[in-house]
């Protein structure tokens, strides 16, 4: 499976999992000049910006470790644009790790600020 296909599969899997947890999907692959936010969901009154990391397994490193400080900064800037366009609300940043080999998902709430 190509990396792009793996990423798309992970995003779809994460979106379904978050919806099952009661979140409402607002956007997938929201693009800005700062970068892309994989998923944006509503959890109660909170807008949640979600970075999805998909790996075959965790043998190399946990997927969340790939969300570097530079990536976090780009996500914050993109989130600010969303909030400016759609209206301010409480917000948080989550990371969802999807491991395809054993079909597990790890949801990290408030992964960074």
UniProtKB/TrEMBL annotation:
- Judging by the UniProt lineage, the source's domain of life is Bacteria
Q: Which Gene3D superfamilies match?
A: 3.40.1350.10
Q: Which InterPro entries match?
A: Restrct_endonuc-II-like (IPR011335), tRNA_endonuc-like_dom_sf (IPR011856), UPF0102_YraN-like (IPR003509)
* GO molecular function (one): nucleic acid binding
Q: Which Pfam families match?
A: UPF0102
- Its family? Belongs to the UPF0102 family.
Query: Would you tell me the protein name for this molecule?
Result: UPF0102 protein IAB67_05160
Organism expressing this protein natively: Candidatus Ventrousia excrementavium
Upper taxonomic lineage: Bacteria, Bacillati, Bacillota, Clostridia, Eubacteriales
């Amino acid at each position: 499976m190509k990396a792009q296909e793996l990423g798309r599969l992970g995003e779809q899997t994460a979106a379904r999992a978050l919806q099952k947890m009661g979140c409402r999907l607002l956007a997938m692959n929201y693009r800005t000049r700062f970068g892309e936010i994989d998923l944006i969901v509503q959890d109660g009154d909170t807008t949640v910006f979600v970075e999805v990391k998909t790996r075959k397994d965790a043998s190399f490193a946990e997927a969340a470790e790939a969300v570097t400080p530079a990536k976090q900064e780009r996500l914050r800037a993109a989130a600010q644009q969303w909030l400016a366009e759609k209206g301010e609300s409480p917000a948080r940043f989550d990371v969802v790790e999807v491991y395809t080999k054993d079909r597990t998902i790890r949801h990290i709430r408030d992964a960074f600020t």
